[in-house]
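Structure in, sequence out. Go:
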């Protein structure tokens, strides 16, 4: 049993043995890798997924569980619409265990500038056929004490239970014929003059001509071994859940709710998932310096809530500069990246909850956990073939909002991996953008 201080993740019984070969190998058992494997297996492909720890041990079980289109970068909207259709189909197939509920998502407009951004986003999204509105917050959250009246609101957005969703998708992938090997770290992508030839793992090599890298926070160092640069950093975000609410308390609000420094959603266990959404911590590592200029414009807009520090990761990642063995040790030491949550950031969460919702005063915290979010400079993912390594497809950098968009990303990654035409134009997500231009982030929220 791998120690894990995060949410209790539903178990997945995968394969014990590594196959000698596979048509496609997927690296990473988070929402991106698992939904890719599911799509591939259902389309009749021979797919093997490698996960160094357990399915959904990292970001994919630690997130808030918001399935959101609200306020997204406009470039992501076609993909998030595809994802919503996939969530609906998967929910119909799996049933209530997925916890998928279209309860709406609301971002309270807390300043005239933010209200203006929200209005402009609604106009853009409506033009793209998405149901979005500026709503009266009191009707959505009758228990909320606030001076602000309006919110950006998407009634079709919702939530799912992260600790169950990805394992349930993984079970479907296995049922469709995918081989999922847990406790097996991929160390390197092997190649010849034509491209990928296999994946070297801690348990031997799997021969393949096609690989999808969906390694979350670990993608950049693995790519570097193949001479590919991906500007990707990690930030720590801290979350907690509360004890169950009474039926009366649960009436305080309906949608997933952002109040700027507080994010809330209802859970199937009748508690709340709550976070201090304004605060993240980043360790200074060699990549912080390597990619400083690419990240600076985006960092500026995050600075009020961004804390930089030196830590264990600083020393560990310095070791990666001196050869692959150190990275291989890290991959097997951290079967689950399980950072200590930021106690300070969380200490204010229940106080804020009580201030904003008097009926929820006195709720106890039942569990707290941390999650390392992988971010790109423009805060949108990389979904791209690697031009310098034929056969490699990259799906990573989902920058804090990959859970909701995940099933859509899995669908297009499966297309890329098999040479089919993806359902969505992926030009904005190509890896080369970081080389060709100065990628810009869009801030609508
Ligand atoms: C606190 C927090 C809150 C969030 N809230 C939301 C939200 O409300 N809504 C939303 O849409 N998104 C949210 N996100 C973001 C979302 O969780 C991520 O974008 C998404 O889960 C990323 O999925 P992934 O598959 O890319 O990565 P991960 O889930 O991190 O999975 C990557 C997997 O790859 C494995 N791996 C890596 N390298 C190797 C290797 N070499 N060999 C084998 N295995 C390997 C890892 O062990 C890991 O299991 C949040 C994230 C956090 C941390």
């Amino acid at each position: 049993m791998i120690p894990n201080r995060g949410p209790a993740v539903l178990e997945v019984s995968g394969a014990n043995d590594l196959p000698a070969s596979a048509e496609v190998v997927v690296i990473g058992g988070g929402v991106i890798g698992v939904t890719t494997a599911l799509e591939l297996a259902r389309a009749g492909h021979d797919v093997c997924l490698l996960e160094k720890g357990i399915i959904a041990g990292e970001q994919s079980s630690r997130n808030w569980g918001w399935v959101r289109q609200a306020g997204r970068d406009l470039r992501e909207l076609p993909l998030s619409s595809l994802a919503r259709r996939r969530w609906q189909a998967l929910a119909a197939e799996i049933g209530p265990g997925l916890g998928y509920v279209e309860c709406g998502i609301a971002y309270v407009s807390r300043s005239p500038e933010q209200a203006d951004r929200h209005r402009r986003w609604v106009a853009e999204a409506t033009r793209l056929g998405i149901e979005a509105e500026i709503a009266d917050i009191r009707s959505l959250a009758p228990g909320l004490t606030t001076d602000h009246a309006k919110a950006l609101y998407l009634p079709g957005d919702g939530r799912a239970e992260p600790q169950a969703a990805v394992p349930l998708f993984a079970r479907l992938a296995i049922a469709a014929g995918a081989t999922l090997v847990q406790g097996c770290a991929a160390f390197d992508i092997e190649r010849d003059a034509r491209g990928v030839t296999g994946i070297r793992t801690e348990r031997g090599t799997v021969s393949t001509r096609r690989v999808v890298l969906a390694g979350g926070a670990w993608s950049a160092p693995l790519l570097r071994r193949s001479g590919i640069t991906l500007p990707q950093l990690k930030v720590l975000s801290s979350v907690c859940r509360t004890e169950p609410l009474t039926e009366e308390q649960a009436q305080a609000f309906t949608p997933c709710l952002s109040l700027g420094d507080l994010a809330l959603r209802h859970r199937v266990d009748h508690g709340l998932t709550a976070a201090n959404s304004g605060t993240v911590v980043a360790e200074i590592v060699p990549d912080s310096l390597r990619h400083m200029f690419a990240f600076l414009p985006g960092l500026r807009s995050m600075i009020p809530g961004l804390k930089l520090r030196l830590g264990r990761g600083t020393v560990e990642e310095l070791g990666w500069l001196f050869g692959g063995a150190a990275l291989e040790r890290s991959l097997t030491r951290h079967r689950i990246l399980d950072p200590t949550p930021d106690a300070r950031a969380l200490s204010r969460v229940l106080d804020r909850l009580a201030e904003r919702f008097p009926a929820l005063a006195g709720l106890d915290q039942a569990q707290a956990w941390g999650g390392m979010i992988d971010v790109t400079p423009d805060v949108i993912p990389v979904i791209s073939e690697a031009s310098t390594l034929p056969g490699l497809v990259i799906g990573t950098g989902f920058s804090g909002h990959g859970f909701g968009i995940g099933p859509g990303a899995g669908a297009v990654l499966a297309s890329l991996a098999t040479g089919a035409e993806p359902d969505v134009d992926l030009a904005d997500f190509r890896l080369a953008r970081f080389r060709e231009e100065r990628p810009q982030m869009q801030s609508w929220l």
